[in-house]
């Protein structure tokens, strides 16, 4: 957990820079606007759709209209918030994270040589694939949300996986070789998930949740580049000196 706390500490320390706030607030504003738009235009339709599925249909058969409606609205808001977060995360991964990576690589990680492939297409595919898997898993696990406690646990775990799956790769794609990425992914599998889990918990705090997609991207950049720096242990610097 020490490396996770180090990445988070550096992330919050970066908030003293005005440019970083621009990176953080852009997805937050997008998420807020998307939430308002979905609540205005789609909430009613989602509620009506959910009322046609168990357990709401069971409650309606038992003449518990108020409880069925309450659960349908709760499910509708959860769906809207998940969609808004997912949209902000995709925006961050595709458009904001490359800017963050460039900023940090030029300031705090100048000694970490970029030896990977700066592929915009690969980053987009990775982010979209992660989002699709997340949506499918979210829908498939909906029946389990009826089990006491699972409605809180499952969204957090799914979001933790989404954070790690989306941002861990993007943070290192430009700097790490394929072999380095494979080694780091295996060696840091648990800490990367714990970082994703920590940010998933923050995503369930009102208002702060709007900032989490960008903060997650920033944290994974810090974690990934620091892990790569330690893995190389100055090897790149030594090679450059030997060649000169």
Structure description:
By secondary structure, the protein is mainly α. It is 80% helix and 0% strand. The protein contains 11 helices and no strands. Helix 7 crosses helix 10 and helix 9 (189-202) packs antiparallel against helix 10 (208-232). The protein is elongated and about 65 Å long. The two termini are 39 Å apart. Mean pLDDT is 89; it is low at 237-244.
Short overview:
With 244 residues, the chain is an all-alpha fold. The protein contains 11 helices and no strands.
Distance between the termini: 39 Å
Radius of gyration from the CA trace? 20 Å
Say how many strands there are.
0
Report the principal-axis shape. elongated
Oligomer: single chain
In DSSP terms (H or I, runs of 4 or more residues), the helix count works out at 11
Spans of 5+ residues with little confidence (pLDDT < 50)?
237-244
What's the story with the biggest beta sheet? none
The chain-level mean pLDDT equals 89
Order of helices and strands: HHHHHHHHHHH
Structural class by sheet pairing and helices: mainly alpha
Hey, roughly how much beta strand do the residues contain? under 5%
Please bin the fraction of helical residues: over 70%
Task: Provide key terms for this protein.
single chain; 244 residues; 11 helices; elongated
Write the layout of secondary structure elements.
Layout: H1 2-13, H2 18-41, H3 43-50, H4 56-61, H5 65-107, H6 120-140, H7 150-172, H8 178-187, H9 189-202, H10 208-232, H11 235-243
Helix pairs in contact: 1-9, 1-10, 2-5, 2-10, 3-5, 5-6, 5-7, 5-10, 6-7, 7-9, 7-10, 9-10
